[in-house]
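#struct-queue
[09:14] JT: dropping the first one here, sequence first, then the structure tokens:
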Amino acid sequence: MKILVIDSVANELFIALIRNDAVTIKIFASPRQHDRNINCLVREVLSTGKTVFLELDAIAVVTGPGSWTGSRVGVSAAKAYSMALGKPAINITAQETRDKLIDSVRDAFNNKKFVAARELAPQYNSEFKVTLSKK
């Protein structure tokens, strides 16, 4: 089992590679730069695990709830990887801890809870508010 995990819904960008019982993790802690760093972190985590894209069994992505832009960045990357490689996608909701996230991904993979890449969609929890200024 080799699964790429993408979680970009929070302030930090979290990328992991699950290889059977081993997990390689990379975190980029600067907010609002996920789009600029996601591909670099994916490349780093794959090279650390000595894995190439073609060896992956699935792509897992946290779709939310979380920030709208962060969700879109992760989902877009996961869709691209999944479609380009012809690998199944796993849709995961945000978890309280990273350990629970990894466990959820493993469970979804083992139970074959895959979705087509085109069905991945970001979820967000921000409320859009308009305030009128008085002039």
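[09:21] JT: and here's the second one, same format:
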Amino acid sequence: MSLFSPFRIGPLELPNRIVMAPLGRARAHVERREPTASVVAYYVQRATAGLIVSEATHVAFDSVSRPGTAAIHTDGQVEAWRRVTDAVHAAGGRIFQQLFHLGRKADPERLPYVGLPKAPSAIAAMGEFSTPSGPRPFPVPRALATDEVAGIVAEFRAAAANARRAGFDGVEIHGANGFLIDQFLRDAANQRDDAYGGPVQNRARFLLEVVDAVASVFGAERVGVRLSPHAKADGMGDSTPANTFEHAARQLGQRGLAYLHLIEPVGTAREDALAPVVRRAFPGPLILCGGFERASAQAALDEARADLIAFGVGFIANPDLVERLRRDAPWNVPDTATFYSGGDKGYTDYPFLNVAPC
């Protein structure tokens, strides 16, 4: 199989196996968290991807971080995202919306109430985050009561309904990178003793309830899930990762999902690799992401380690990444200083092939 051969996920026929990974860029409206005209242009530029997965999008008012991150819990946000999906579809593209809740990584200074972020357990994320008054350590969050969990599942369901109203082709549930679902899944952040803690069957319960709720809106064939078994930032980790992610993959595989999206860096040592474990447990399409370039991506397909390959930074700096991969052409160098800076510089102004920079 080739990076450029078609592939089907659910009802969607993709023209290639190149996925634009979800990339937070902080370009939404600062206060309303609605995508702007620049966001529309950004995604349209990249519509040749087999599938675009949008930036992580907040499902609720109390999942709040840096200004400019997008959300999908108000009518205004739905209308603004509709402009994105309409434009991507007009350009021939396909786009899923990634849905997430920050959990313990929410900024308490921006919460709509006085209090602490919510999490499975009262364990602070490690490190610091930026605030209007300067860097501060993550606070110790408030552990959710058992009867509160259903309310957050309902927020994901409502967000999925909004994503459908906004015209997305499907949704990806963000179960990775130390956010709320990942916090429940891995035992470094989850020390509960109720139905959502302890053995992996309990720790995976929240993820599966969210998946089932979202699938009730879109249909399972239009729902993907992203997992990151190796992510250790912010104090994340798991005592038995192979067992945890094999269980999660097996349970997800019984639900007929569009795909499973796994972050596993290209340089992961063979003895630490979990993609083979996940591949055996999950019978549906598998997307791999983690620093791939043309040769390593094609090798992963040739060796049947994945069905599709997601590119992150490559799509930031190369709106025409699909064509560059096709021609084996050089890639633009990303300007890391502009990743979250706001404005069009480093966002919509990267040159296309055969177009000199301004």
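[09:30] RK: nice, looked through the second one.
[09:31] RK: The CA atoms of residues 54 and 97 lie 5 Å apart.
[09:31] JT: good to know. The two ends are 38 Å apart (CA to CA).
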